[in-house]
Design a protein that fits this description.
Elements lengths: L5 E5 L6 H12 L2 E3 L9 H6 L1 H26 L7 E3 L5 H9 L2 H15 L7 E6 L2 H11 L9 H21 L5 E5 L9 H19 L1
Parallel strand pairs: 1-3, 1-4, 2-3, 4-5
Helix pairs in contact: 3-4, 3-5, 4-5, 4-7
GO molecular function, one term: kinase activity
Pfam family, one: dNK
Organism: Bacillus carboniphilus
């Protein structure tokens, strides 16, 4: 395999990104990169009043994700050690475009492009989708206090936003394959056959990238 694998698992809130990333990391013995969520001091306020707390929330996420990607680039990818992450930093644009006011978003966009201009790009993106009903069920099961006030309309918008963002990303980066899995049809946490199916698809994608 000529390219050091860097897999990013993406999808809306509650779809199972971290669970799948862990399973993939365990299977291939890749380094697991998990995004910082619980440590964001603004997140509980954000779900109570999105308009008031969106800029603080998005800037915290951007700065921390930038630092994480900088670290894995230096410590792992540059030393040919494969990585699987439970996010892609472009998710910042999905969320910020939806939540920030126009002038805030313009400033945010400038900062985003400065920070990410030389960041490593994934060699493969795994895109998880699910219906609103499934997402709400999984969010409830994991029981994070700061997510109990999440707005259903906001979550439904994110489902749409992710679909559009993935289509655009495929156009902008045609050399980065995207594998899409339906979380309503696959339960890779409780069903080993579903996880095996996903792993086989990842095997094929990684093999083709190494040819």
């Amino acid at each position: 395999m000529s390219e050091t694998p860097f897999i990013a698992v993406e999808g809306p809130i509650g779809v199972g990104k971290t669970s799948l990333s862990k399973a993939i990391a365990n299977h291939y013995q890749f380094h697991l990169l998990r995004e910082i969520v619980d440590e964001n001091p603004f997140l509980s306020h954000f779900y109570e009043d999105i308009g008031e707390w969106s800029f603080q929330t998005e800037m915290f996420f951007l700065c921390n994700r930038y630092k994480q990607l900088e670290d894995i680039s230096k410590k792992y990818l540059s030393n040919q050690q494969a990585v699987v992450a439970d996010y892609h930093i472009f998710k910042n644009l999905i969320f910020s475009k939806r939540t920030l006011k126009t002038e805030q978003y313009k400033k945010y966009l400038q900062i985003y492009h400065i920070l990410t201009s030389d960041m490593p790009q994934p060699s493969l993106i795994i895109y998880l989708t699910a219906s609103l009903e499934t997402l709400l069920k999984r969010i409830s099961l994991r029981g994070r206090d700061f997510e109990k006030n999440i707005d259903k309309h906001y979550l439904q918008q994110l489902i749409f936003d992710y679909e559009e963002a993935m289509k655009n990303h495929q156009k902008d980066y045609p050399n980065i394959p995207i594998i899409k899995f339906d979380g309503d049809q696959l339960d890779f946490v409780l069903n080993k056959q579903d996880l095996t199916f996903i792993i086989k698809q990842v095997d094929q994608a990684l093999s083709s990238k190494g040819e």
